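Consortium newsletter contribution from the modelling node. Members have asked for a concrete example of what our holo predictions look like. Here is one, prepared for the alpha-D-glucopyranose complex that several groups have been discussing at recent meetings.
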Amino acid sequence: MSRLNVSQWMLGAVAVVAFAAGVQAKTLTISCGAVGAEKQLCEEGTQAWAEQTGHDVKVVSTPNSATERLSLYQQLLAAQSGDVDIFQIDVVWPGMLAKHLVDLSEYTGGAEDAHFKSLVQNNTVDGRLVAMPWFTDAGVLYYRKDLLEKYDQDVPETWQDLTNSARVVMAGEREAGNDRFWGYVWQGRAYEGLTCNALEWVSSYNGGTIVDADGKVTINNPHAREALALAASWIDDISPRSVLNYTEEEARGVFQSGNALFMRNWPYAWSLAQSEDSSVKDKVGVVALPKGGEDGSHTGTLGGWQLAVSRYSENTEEAADLVLFLTSYEEQKRRAIQGSYNPTIPGLYKDEEVLTAVPFFGELFETFKNGVPRPSSVTGESYGRVSNAFFNATHQVLSGEAEPEQALSGLERQLQRVGRRGW
Ligand code: GLC
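And here is the predicted structure:
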């Protein structure tokens, strides 16, 4: 019997055993992200569960832009469609989607206690655990070690340092013949990713978090204006104008092909930058994002994804079981090693195999633990509108359609209107 046949035979045997035990094989559908290697990792994980249980799992992929993904989910859930059993949801969505999701605490047997408390709290809405943490995220700075060395530049401490080094290296590389070389690539499209980038700039200048923990709109302040003005100055200087249409993958494409000195991205980009076919393999360093000024702070927006079971699923029990499997220690360890996805179980940050594969998980542990949250808990169901207003105002400043002062006072009025009767 060939290898394939053996494993097919074993699969069949599992199904027979399950059937004999009176368990009916089900087909579950999970919607997974498809950014970088995400879809493949999701398929491998769900396949392992299917082999163990005799059930089938269908993986459907979703748009890469978190904003587009949210509107797709909202349509499916508003129609009370049972087509998707398990949704991969963003850390900022529990408040918006809670009413469509199952309370998982009835199925977990306390498994959530092994995860970061702040995430479990984030995923608990009105006392219901609407999602299990799957991986966490924080924005980080990728840089080319070889080029900083070649041009005798330090790893930047402040955004101004970053801007200066980017100019020096860009001028040199262009003179040497690479006219596609840029200093800094990031996510500037008008979507959720820009909210994450801009929140980093603002909070690195100590300019707050758009709306504070008490629900007060704080975005119209001098630190925020300074931060946006600096970012706008990058366009056509150290960043290409096309960055205004970049999501994570466009930025990674430029950096990974060797055409940028710095990149802002999430940790997933590490394992791809280190892959065999990457032009920058072994030439990349990762550090916390720069501070606003000398008295600013290193920040990184808290991101990350959770797994939730739809209230309209007809396979709730099996779906909850698959969620527990995918969010378990072993599976998070596999995803950390193979895809540099940040675990949500603290102990994995001390695991030698994980740290060998992704050294900065140890070095930047504090950055990951103290990621700056977007104001989604306080604004609840209104978060989508808050973020949309923020990324649109920011995009106008970046593209030169508005001055920071004008954009931020307009944004302030708009947000105050949204929050007027409480968020
Ligand atoms: C990453 C983050 C997520 C964020 C998204 C924005 O996927 O994990 O939280 O909303 O990027 O593009």
